[in-house]
Amino acid sequence: MTQATATPAKGYAAHNATTPLAPWNFERRAPRPDDVAIDILYCGVCHSDLHFSHNDWGNGVYPVVPGHEIVGRVTAVGSEVTQYREGDLVGVGCMVDSCRHCQACEDGLEQYCLEGFTMTYGSPDEHGHGGGLTQGGYSDSIVVSERFVVRMPDGIDLKSAAPILCAGITTYSPLKHYGVKAGHKVGVIGMGGLGHMGVKLAKALGAEVTIFTRSEAKVAEAKKQGADHVVISTDAQQMEAVAGQFDFMLDTVPVQHDINPYLNALKYDGTHILVGLLEPLEPAVEGFNLVFKRRVLAGSLIGGMPETQEVLDFCAEHGITCDVEMIDIQNINEAWERMQKGDVKYRFVIDMASLKN
């Protein structure tokens, strides 16, 4: 990168909270010495893309190009870049910067940066031109600091690896942090993009895995994903039968739900980990369910950069892939409608070659 000039890019953007995504031409920042320029090949479609663009969380900004499950090929590197070179296959996940100097960042836990991490889209780009916003992966290219780029391992399927950068790391990080291993019993609550990855990863770590689902129709699918057992959470008898059995609950449900029955399914010293819900717990947690069994209610957010590389390597080693349905960028609005209805198993991935049409 000899000349630091902004580069033209094209993608699909939300221009407000209510209209469909539409094509948009914009600029990527002038690359810095530590930057990697990437030609985007694939981008996963996450529920967060929809929520942010629809301003469901009240923090929407426009225009915004969503997408934080990015797989691409390096086209150029800055003079200070040491880990990557032109032609390398790489990934970019949910964050593209942080303060880099607080305790969390020094510990490789950039997602807990004390000054707040920079999201891949919709965040003020501290190093951008003209103080603009970061723009995500529903586009043809991206420029990212080397620290926030990961390497795609040899042999990994690039298309199905894209969601590992969000759904994969979101479920892998708490399983690793809490030490899930052979002999542990893990319950996975919910059978969507996060849940099906949670099953595969917990199984690969050696755990005995049970899926908790509200739907009788998902029993066969849960078994196909590798679950040892399936519990219909709306069946009081089935829930009573598993009381006090589990070491961990990985709770991937993104909407309010009663966690008390799941706490009751934990052993003493069991841990219930929230990775999907950002709203207040409703109904309230009964203190009895925690105090009388020394149970822990915990939360976990994506993963730091070292751990994001680790989960990619782990998935490549164990042959773990995300179940994906490929789409063209021109069909993104229809895909979002289907995603809202739960009509996808389990992640849409955009083939960015379609953007050239």
Keywords:
17 strands, six-stranded parallel beta sheet, seven-stranded mixed beta sheet, 357 residues, Quinone Oxidoreductase, Chain A, domain 1, alpha/beta, 23% helix
List the helices and strands and how they pair.
Blueprint (H helix, E strand, L loop, with lengths): L6 E7 L8 E7 L6 E11 L1 H7 L16 E8 L11 E4 L2 E3 L5 H4 L11 E2 L21 E5 L4 E2 L6 H4 L5 H11 L7 E5 L3 H12 L3 E6 L5 H6 L4 E4 L3 H6 L4 E6 L8 H5 L1 E9 L12 H5 L4 E4 L5 H14 L5 E5 L3 H9 L6 E5 L6
Parallel strand pairs: 10-11, 10-13, 11-12, 13-14, 14-15, 16-17
Antiparallel strand pairs: 1-2, 3-4, 3-8, 3-17, 4-5, 5-9, 6-7
Please provide a written account of the structure.
- The protein has helices at residues 47-53, 103-106, 158-161, 167-177, 193-204, 219-224, 236-241, 260-264, 287-291, 305-318, 332-340, and strands at 7-13, 22-28, 35-45, 70-77, 89-92, 95-97, 118-119, 141-145, 150-151, 185-189, 208-213, 229-232, 246-251, 266-274, 296-299, 324-328, 347-351.
- The chain is of the alpha/beta class and 357 residues long.
- The protein folds into two domains: 7-166 and 321-356, Medium-chain alcohol dehydrogenases, catalytic domain (Quinone Oxidoreductase, Chain A, domain 1); 167-299, Rossmann fold, CATH 3.40.50.720.
- Strands 3, 4, 5, 8, 9, 16 and 17 form a seven-stranded mixed sheet that branches. The chain has a six-stranded parallel sheet with strand order 12-11-10-13-14-15.
- Helix 4 (167-177) crosses helix 5 and helix 4 packs across helix 10 (305-318).
- It is globular.
- The mean pLDDT is 95.
